[in-house]
């Protein structure tokens, strides 16, 4: 059965709104609040498939209906707060790593200077040893 995209001329088109009909938005908003209360797992990344599934579900839902502003914010808010926490944690970690890098760099430069000094001292010691060793012109004493 093929359906035409033209509207039926005999019936009057019904005025519709793009807003979703929902009796109680607060009830819908409440269902997202327990997600924020879940304990955060550290060091465990979500798989890409899980993220793709969630995006696909959201995309299907957006195609089906147009959410109200409250519903959109209720859906996005937990993700935004989690991203903000991750961002702050990574900034703190980056600051710690930067401080560690400064300490490592200073100690590396100090050790390189020490190595250069020791190599110079070793060359000088080898030179003095070669001066105090047997001399080729001492084969026939001139006394």
Structure, explained:
The protein has 143 residues and is mainly alpha-helical. It has a domain at 50-129. 64% of the residues lie in helices and 0% in strands. The protein contains four helices and no strands. It has helices at residues 25-30, 33-37, 48-64, 69-132. The protein is rod-shaped and about 115 Å long. The relative contact order is 0.06. The mean pLDDT is 76.
Helix-strand pattern: HHHH
Main sheet overview? none
Write down the oligomeric state. Answer: single chain
Q: What share of the residues lie within helices?
A: 55-70%
Gap from first CA to last CA = 128 Å
**Global structural class:** mainly alpha
What's the gyration radius in Å? 38 Å
Tell me briefly what this model is.
Helix content is 64%, strand content 0%. It has 4 helices and no strands.
What topology does this entry show?
Blueprint: H1 25-30, H2 33-37, H3 48-64, H4 69-132
Please describe the structure with a list of short key phrases separated by commas or semicolons.
mainly alpha, 4 helices, 143 residues, 0% strand
């Amino acid at each position: 059965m093929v359906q035409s995209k033209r509207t039926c001329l005999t019936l009057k088109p019904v005025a519709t709104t793009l807003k979703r009909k929902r009796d109680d938005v607060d009830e819908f908003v409440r269902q997202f609040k327990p997600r924020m209360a879940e304990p955060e797992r550290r060091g465990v990344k979500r798989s890409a498939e899980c993220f793709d599934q969630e995006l696909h579900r959201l995309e299907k839902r957006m195609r089906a209906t147009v959410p109200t502003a409250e519903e959109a914010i209720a859906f996005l808010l937990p993700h935004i707060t989690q991203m903000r926490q991750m961002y702050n944690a990574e900034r703190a970690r980056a600051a710690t790593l930067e401080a560690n890098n400064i300490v490592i760099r200073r100690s590396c430069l100090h050790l390189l200077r020490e190595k250069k000094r020791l190599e110079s001292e070793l060359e000088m010691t080898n030179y003095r040893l070669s001066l105090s060793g047997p001399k080729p012109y001492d084969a026939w004493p001139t006394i």
